Amino acid sequence: MSRFRALVQASLNATKKALTWNIEDWVPPAEKCIFNFKSKEEIKRWHLYSDSEYGGLSSASLEITDCGSGLSGVFSGNLSLEVSECSGWNMRRSGFCGMRSKKFDDFLDLDAYDTIALKLRGDGRCYISTIYTENWVNSPAQEEDNSWQAFVYVPKGNWYIAKIPLARYLPTWRGNVIDEQLEMNPSRILGMSLSVNAEGGVPGARSGPGDFRVEIDWIKALRTE
After folding, report:
1. What distance in Å separates the CA atoms of residue 176 and residue 179, rounded to the nearest whole number?
2. Are 110 and 131 spatial neighbours (Cβ–Cβ below 8 Å)?
């Protein structure tokens, strides 16, 4: 084959390849891993918060450790309903701790998915999964992100995969549900968190002040429909 014919054939092959597409190139995978707690570097993507910032006495920690089945994250601490006597804050409630991811460099787009899944091993308490999206529900003058929350009951004992449809996340403002028909924009997600309160939760879950501990393997987005 002459050099000219070889160049023509190569050009035709490239054009044919560009025009040939696979359905898998257009349809996102059935699941998307958002967080994987298999490396100590994962801790750098999170920060902790608790009522201690406002005079409460609760405490929390986040570690990556080997609990016998490989590395996983361990979110643990102590929930207290007490308030420091020297607190300058007028606290309405105490007894809460949380771990919140740092803001993503860009929006996390989960528009192709309908469910958040968390692989957990817990203590029988009820935790709260929160998704933070770009502020459009609150007043533009308020700098806080919009928050959408759902309860996650974690049975004590074995690993458990909790699946929460995005439609089940309710809009909240500083922990209180907004009583309006609002819809999350899953293409504009800024971050996530997992938190625990001493009070509230689902019936049958362990509650009250005291220690808490939940192991986290991963957090994913699923497409179930």
Report:
1. 9
2. no
DSSP 175: T
Strand segments, DSSP code E, in 51-198 are 59-66, 71-79, 96-101, 115-121, 126-133, 146-153, 160-165, 170-173, 176-177, 189-197
CB-CB contact of 127 with 149 (8 Å):
no
Q: CA dist 200 to 64, 206, 208, Å?
A: 28, 10, 9
Q: Residues 146, 170, 173, 198: what is their CA dihedral angle, to the nearest 10 degrees?
A: -120
Residue with tokens 């999206």: 133
Cα 177 vs. chain centroid, distance in angstroms? Answer: 18
pLDDT along the chain (225 residues), means of 10: 55 54 65 94 94 91 87 96 71 85 93 97 96 73 79 93 96 80 90 95 92 97 92
Q: Are 138 and 173 in contact (CB under 8 A)?
A: yes
Which pLDDT tens digit goes with each residue over 4-26? 555 546 565 655 554 454 544 56
What is the value of pTM for the model shown? Answer: 0.82
Q: Which of 198, 214, 206 is nearest to 56 (CA)?
A: 198
